[in-house]
């Protein structure tokens, strides 16, 4: 089973789902709290379904999509209760929103946090950004590893919740490699920028989260065929949170905020959204 696309409107997802079914492409719509995802029953249908998706995104008002939905007799259902099925159901639903890379980074952050809680100084010294970057290529991991350091539980949970949601969206709808690229570029650039602003005493995944925010925000504006959109409420909240960080009001709760990393991560993510959006759009036209 593979996720083809996700839509903000249930009626749109159902219309396209019914159209695919009318073409003999079995699929189902999974209702989540803020999105409606179409999953294909057979991976072998993926290429054909993606071509149909591109045509749908170019002209979603075409009567053939809505006629298929009318003929199917389906009605819009209320969002399902995610608590149904107990803990197993919750875990299954959570896993459905992520992927292998999302999980690997999550486990790495949790593992580092547990060891850091027992030996903070040793762990921080092993993973912090190098004080002299130009002379530290023999310890190249330090350019990346600050993203795995979290100084308290609230800091960790806040970042991982957003990482799982935003990173999982990229991994599911695009690819693991795409998520890895966004992760590495935003992590490295934001770490360097934060070091320039404040030295090596920083850590956390939040700059990567802001990179993903910028990427998911801009990418579908450049390449609308992707089939997902970031809700404007999320953008407003996260940008507001970034600006609030500059006031210093959050430092007592989350520790010293890495504001330069957050801002640079957001900008880099937006640039990546433009770059990959254009590349994928041009590639689709060439095919």
Can you characterise this structure?
- There is one protein chain.
- This protein is mainly alpha-helical and 287 residues long.
- The protein folds into two domains: 2-82, 2-Layer Sandwich (Alpha-Beta Plaits), CATH 3.30.70; 97-286, Rhomboid-like fold.
- It is 63% helix and 6% strand.
- It is built from twelve helices and three strands; from the N terminus they run βαββααααααααααα.
- A three-stranded antiparallel β-sheet has the order 1-3-2, with helices on one face.
- The protein starts with a strand and ends with a helix.
**What are the secondary-structure elements, in order, as H or E?**
EHEEHHHHHHHHHHH
Low-confidence stretches: 75-84
Terminal Cα span? 25 Å
Q: Report the strand count.
A: 3
Strand order of the largest sheet: 1-3-2
Q: Overall mean pLDDT score?
A: 83
Strand content: 5-15%
Helix content: 55-70%
| CATH architecture label name of the largest domain | Up-down Bundle
- CATH names the topology of the largest domain as Rhomboid-like fold
> What is the number of helices?
12
Gross morphology is elongated
The structural class is: mainly alpha
Give the CATH class of the largest domain.
Mainly Alpha
Q: What is the fourth-level CATH superfamily of the largest domain?
A: Rhomboid-like
| Overall structural domain count | 2
* Biggest β-sheet strands, sense, barrel: 3 strands, antiparallel
């Amino acid at each position: 089973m593979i996720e083809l696309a996700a839509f903000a409107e249930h009626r749109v997802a159902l219309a396209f789902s019914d159209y695919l079914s009318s073409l003999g492409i079995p699929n189902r719509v999974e209702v989540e709290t803020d999105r409606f995802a179409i999953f294909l029953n057979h991976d072998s249908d993926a290429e054909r379904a993606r071509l149909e998706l591109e045509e749908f995104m170019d002209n979603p008002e075409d009567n053939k999509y809505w006629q298929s939905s009318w003929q199917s007799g389906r009605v819009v259902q209320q969002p399902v209760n995610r608590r149904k099925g107990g803990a197993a159901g919750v875990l299954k639903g959570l896993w459905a929103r992520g992927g292998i890379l999302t999980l690997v980074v999550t486990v790495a952050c949790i593992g580092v946090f547990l060891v850091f809680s027992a030996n903070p100084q040793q762990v921080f010294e092993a993973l912090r950004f190098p004080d002299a970057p130009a002379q530290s290529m023999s310890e190249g991991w330090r350019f990346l590893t600050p993203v795995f350091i979290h100084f308290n539980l609230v800091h960790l949970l806040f970042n991982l919740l957003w990482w799982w949601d935003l990173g999982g969206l990229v991994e599911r709808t695009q690819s693991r490699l795409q998520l890895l690229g966004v992760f590495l570029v935003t992590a490295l650039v934001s770490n360097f920028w934060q070091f320039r602003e404040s030295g090596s005493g920083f850590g956390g995944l939040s700059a990567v989260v802001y990179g993903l925010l910028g990427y998911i925000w801009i990418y579908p504006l450049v390449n609308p065929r992707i089939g997902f959109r970031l809700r404007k409420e999320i953008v407003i909240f996260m940008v507001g949170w970034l600006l609030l960080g500059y006031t210093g009001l959050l430092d007592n709760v989350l520790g010293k905020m890495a504001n330069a990393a957050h801002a640079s991560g957001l900008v880099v993510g937006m640039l990546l959204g433009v770059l990959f959006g254009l590349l994928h759009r041009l590639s689709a036209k060439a095919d």
